[in-house]
Design goal:
heterotrimer, A alpha/beta (451), B mainly alpha (310), C mainly alpha (312), B: 310 residues, mainly alpha, MetI-like fold, 2 domains, 14 helices, globular, C: 312 residues, 12 helices, 68% helix, 0% strand, flat, ABC_transporter_permease (chain C), MetI-like_sf (chain C)
Chain lengths: 451, 310, 312
């Protein structure tokens, strides 16, 4: 036995030089104009519309086949990286602002500047701001925007009516980090304990609540706080980084940010929001349906999910007005990127251009799920979505009123998220004070100084 | 003391024949058994109840004991019988599920893996348990170390190997790493072969049978119980394998059922899950294995009797 | 295997004092080698080689899409100071203790109940039912049933005035819950393995015991347990090593949360390798896990003397 171990060790040592790591062959891909273009997307709700786009596209481009593969969001990015490693990546895929930095820095996706200069489209056709999100920190453009989203409120209209809250009140909520403004008044009014006492009435029992005013998701926010707190901090003039896109210094140590989180945390103690640990594993839409929460802050991309919910009467409202007199909402845009290793980038580019064209986007608009980034078809989408029963203008008004701000694209996004997720979770769970976010901020910023 | 007892005796004592019949101890024992079975089965009822509910109204009565808003829609969705509009109206997704393709892939992959593992495992187990050759125990121990290798550790190098061989998204990639050996099969069968009395083997030897014949004509038939049990266990394991198929076989043409169940996971960021669809798919995916068990179950549990044991 | 064996005259019975003719012994060696060849091939190609490759990678900073260089033991040094790693080890051990404790006791109990109470194949089949459902789905199902706000289990508990309990959401409950979920799935499987060992015990022993006036309880401790040892050893080695590798359940439920309370080692490795593409470091963590598992399994086998059978 001992001899065997010795031999095995010797063999191992001898083999070591043999297992120097091979790099995946650097692929430059090819520029074929024909063949099959594989296209990945994650949102099943949008699949039918894009399937229609593919059919229309194939009709006018008979020598190109579009094969759409839908992969759920939970798996999408893991499988994407794996497929790049396996040299079986899709030719074109739907990309996300928070992720594409990982792909540009590794040279996995194709810059589009020269192609756009040669073939168009005219970038002015897009809703303002959506195109800029797709310019990487190297100044190159990596995607054509196709839709945009914003954040707003979904609330249970029946509960609001029972609480004596009018739709007008809901459309003009105010907020500040000290007393929470009329936003907090509404949340308190909507909270009902097991004895039927409301949150703003004496004798309310915050430990035994039947319906919470505000829902919370798990994990509570991560680095961007997109649907959780970003629309509040922005009304105080706070921003995530020192510049809107590709910043390298985060501001989680700013008192404006920490005051907002402290206020948010106080809702749990007051019984207006469930403890964070109870949010693990359930979805806002389920809790709304079950009558456990009366109001949630959510992204416009979920509007069709909420519109489909049976058994409850919902309505939408814009985010509250902050102490400086304006609203704010984070807006994000999805775009289609081309894999640098694709053998038929010519065909892929044709498809990407078609996806961002008014022809395809008006099909998407009629699908009633998302709002296209092509400005001319926005009204069509608003009408199609409205026809399903929920008004999307509380979300889209931010674009018209100039109160939207972009998703903070930055490098190390995954690490920033995991640090801030853990830190926010500790604060919201009550095991750490808000001031601990300063230390988390140092940890985040160290990612950028260490190269 | 050898008793060659080839009579097929009942393998366990029949209840009721013990002295005393219904003693308090037996009542307690039955109560334990019933409790375990109840906890085992309740989630299955919950799966069925959910699978027969309507996804859009499910959460309105999350704790109702009966299906919410009864519908066969989830099963129709999974089997690809529902139109897109029908599916979406009940909280399903727009993604198509090629159920029959996935079923074929699962059956093919699990069958190949099981056949390879059991056959090669039995051969090796016999060599380790009943034959004498230099270095036997050392080799066995080395093979056993494979048991300690965390799958995650070998998965990536194996993934790179499959990539380099150009096998990604082929059946070969799904089957090969499990086909030739699983330490569990070797270990399991060896433990049983060890228990077979030597005298029987020696009798065969005296009749002039070599090792190969002894193995195929004596040992295999005698160990049919453990071999079938192992085959069933490994089949289920291969059937439910998740991570590896996800890594190397995510393409539609070779996708297995387990991987396909992933389609029902969260479809949109912070979106909702099609619970009825997921549960219907789960039940349907478990069905083939369940049928297999019903078909072979009696054989397994009845034949784990060893004749010829001291 | 197409060798037709020529009867080896007077091949020694293994176990008998070997007065072997060298030819017979040689033959046996060759046949044995033929028998183990496929397994050895599988072992070398799919276990040994990847492990060696993995070990090699652990000495580099391999990250897939960037240049790779040899960094010696730097990954191992980093590991020593990595709090997340040590926490993951602790969490994993806690999980193993709970899971194996629950599972082994319950499985022995269940196997004995099945063995002594009923011959119904239906009941034996029912017990195995959870094992027929994929891990991932079992995890999702319980995730939903145990939900703090709308789960059926908390509904039932509330009738008894308990709860609501955040089974997956609170730091103290997460690991016990995951251990319970996996016990639920594997109980029937483990019990079936033990059951297979039980039916190998000759009935005559129990009959003799009953004649001597021994109670079920005494027979269990004096006959069943000692004779079950080889099978129990097998089951324990398999389940302990398997339970160290808990992954699926965590991946689809808590994803390591809340606050790393369920970040088990395998999930940490997965996170490093496939989410952060830090493959060199992930390999180093795997190597350490491999060493730990080998030691544990080796000690177990030694303690249980799994190599011997009391029946042979």
């Amino acid at each position: 036995m001992r001899r065997l171990t010795v031999i095995a060790t010797a063999v191992l040592v001898a083999l070591l030089p043999a297992c120097t790591v091979e790099r995946p062959p650097a692929e430059s891909g090819g520029w074929d104009d024909t063949g099959e273009v594989t296209y990945w997307m994650w949102d099943a709700n949008q699949l039918p519309a894009y399937q229609q786009c593919a059919t229309d596209f194939e009709a006018s481009n008979p020598d190109i086949d579009i094969a759409i593969e839908q992969v759920g969001w939970d798996y999408y990015w893991g499988r994407m990286l794996t497929s790049f490693v396996a040299n079986s990546a899709p030719d074109v895929f739907v990309n996300h602002t928070s992720k594409y930095g990982d792909y540009t820095s590794r040279g996995l996706i194709e810059p589009l500047d020269e192609l756009i200069a040669r073939d168009g489209p005219d970038l002015s056709q897009f809703v303002e701001g959506t195109g800029d999100l797709w310019v990487g920190d190297d100044g190159k453009r990596y995607g054509l925007p196709k839709d945009f989203d914003a954040v707003g409120l979904f609330y249970n209209a029946t509960m609001a009516q029972d609480a004596g809250i009018t739709p007008e009140q809901m459309q003009n909520l105010t907020w500040n980090p000290q007393d929470g403004g009329t936003y907090e008044d509404v949340l308190a009014r909507l909270s009902v304990d097991v004895n039927g006492v409301r949150g703003d009435e004496p004798g309310f029992d915050p430990r035994n609540v039947a319906t919470y005013g505000l829902g919370i998701t798990y994990p509570p926010g991560g680095g961007s706080g997109q649907t959780q707190w970003s629309f509040l901090t922005a009304t105080l003039g706070w921003s995530h980084t020192e510049k809107p896109l590709w910043g390298t210094r985060f501001n989680y140590d700013d008192p404006r940010f920490q005051d907002t989180i402290a206020w948010w945390r106080s809702l749990i103690d007051k019984g207006y929001m469930p403890p964070v640990e109870q949010a693990v594993g359930n979805e806002p839409s389920q809790l709304m349906q079950a009558g456990r929460v009366a109001l949630v802050t959510e992204g416009s991309w979920n509007i069709s999910t909420f519109a489909k919910l049976g058994g409850i009467e919902l309505a939408t409202a814009p985010t509250p007005i902050g102490p400086r007199g304006f609203r704010a909402a984070m807006t994000n845009s999805l775009a289609d990127s081309i894999a640098a290793g694709s053998p038929n980038k010519g065909a892929a580019w044709k498809w990407v251009r078609y996806l961002a064209s008014p022809e395809c986007q008006s099909v998407v608009a009629q699908g009633g799920v998302v709002v296209p980034a092509v400005a001319s078809v926005v009204p069509v989408a608003e009408a199609a979505i409205g026809a399903q029963g929920l008004d999307i203008t509380p979300f889209t008004r931010h674009l018209r009123e100039g109160t939207a701000f972009p998703f903070p694209a930055a490098h190390h996004a995954a690490d920033v998220d995991s640090i801030m997720e853990a830190a926010t979770e500790r604060v919201m769970g009550g095991s750490a004070d808000v001031s601990s976010l300063t230390a988390a901020n140092e940890e985040v910023n160290a990612l950028f100084t260490q190269g | 003391m050898v008793t060659v007892d080839t009579a097929v005796a009942p393998t366990s004592s029949t209840p009721g024949q013990e002295a005393g019949g219904l003693t308090p101890g037996r009542v307690l024992a039955w109560a334990c058994l019933i409790a375990i079975i109840a906890i085992t089965l309740f989630p299955f009822y919950w799966m069925l109840r959910t699978a027969l509910s309507n996804g859009t109204t499910l959460a309105t009565a999350g704790t109702s004991w009966l299906p919410v808003d009864f519908t066969w829609g989830a099963f129709r969705r999974v089997l690809g019988l529902a139109t897109l509009e029908e599916a979406q109206a009940e909280g399903g997704t727009g993604s198509a599920v090629d159920f029959w393709v996935y079923l074929r892939n699962s059956v093919l992959v699990a069958s190949l893996i099981t056949a390879g593992q059991v056959f090669f495992g039995a051969l090796a187990a016999y060599a380790f348990a009943r034959m004498r050759w230099p270095g036997r125990d050392a080799v066995f121990f080395v093979l056993l170390t494979a048991l300690m290798v965390p799958p995650i550790f070998t998965q990536l190098p194996n993934f790179l190997l499959m990539r380099d061989l150009g096998l990604i998204n082929t059946y070969a990639a799904l089957v090969l790493p499990f086909f030739f050996m699983t330490p569990f099969a070797v270990f399991f069968l060896r433990q049983f072969f060890l228990g077979i009395s030597r005298e029987i083997e020696e009798a065969a030897r005296l009749d002039g049978a070599g090792h190969v014949r002894t193995f195929f004509q004596l040992i295999v038939p005698m160990s049919w119980g453990p071999i079938t049990t192992l085959a069933l266990l490994q089949y289920v394991q291969a059937w439910n394998e998740y991570f590896w198929p996800l890594l190397v076989g995510s393409e539609r043409s070779v996708r297995t059922l387990t991987v396909a169940l992933g389609v029902f996971r969260s479809q949109t960021p912070q979106g909702s899950l099609d619970w009825p669809g997921l549960m219907a798919a789960t039940l349907i995916a478990a069905l083939p294995v369940l049928l297999l068990f019903i078909a072979f179950g009696r054989k397994i549990v009845d034949s784990i009797g060893f004749s010829g044991i001291k | 295997m197409t060798t037709t064996a020529v009867p080896a005259a007077g091949a020694p019975a293994s176990g008998a004092p070997a007065v072997a003719r060298p030819v017979g012994r040689n033959r046996e060696t060759w046949v044995a080698l033929g028998f183990i060849l496929p397994s050895v091939f599988g072992f070398v190609v799919f276990y040994l080689w990847p492990s060696v490759r993995g070990f090699g990678l652990s000495l580099t900073d391999y990250q897939f899409f960037s240049d790779t260089s040899f960094v010696g033991l730097a990954n191992y040094q980093r590991l020593l100071g990595d709090e997340t790693f040590w926490n993951a080890m602790l969490v994993t051990v806690w999980y193993v203790v709970l899971n194996i404790g629950f599972q082994t006791v319950l499985a022995i109990l269940l196997a004995v109940l099945l063995h002594r109470l009923t011959r119904s194949v239906v009941i034996r089949g029912l017990v195995l039912a959870p094992y027929l459902v994929a891990n991932v789905v079992v995890a999702l199902l319980w995730f939903w049933m145990l939900d703090a706000q709308i789960g059926i289990v908390n509904q039932i508990l509330s009738w008894f005035g308990i709860g609501p309990i955040s089974f997956f959401g609170s730091e103290s409950w997460a690991i016990p819950t995951i251990a319970f979920v996996n016990t639920w799935r594997h109980l029937g499987y483990t019990a079936l393995l033990i059951f297979a060992g039980l039916v190998m015990i000759p009935r005559t022993l129990y009959e003799a015991g009953r004649v001597d006036g021994a109670s079920e309880w005494q027979m269990f401790w004096r006959i069943t347990m000692p004779l079950l040892r080889p099978v129990l050893a097998l089951v324990l080695v398999i389940t302990v090593v398997g339970s160290f590798q808990v992954f699926d359940t965590v991946a689809v439920t808590t994803m390591g949360g809340p606050a790393d309370a369920s970040r088990v080692i395998q999930y940490y490795i997965f996170d490093l390798a496939f989410e952060r593409l830090d493959y060199g470091y992930a390999s180093a963590v795997s190597v350490v896990l491999l060493v730990i598992l080998s030691v544990i399994a080796f000690v177990q086998l030694r303690l249980m003397r799994a190599n011997e059978s009391d029946l042979a």
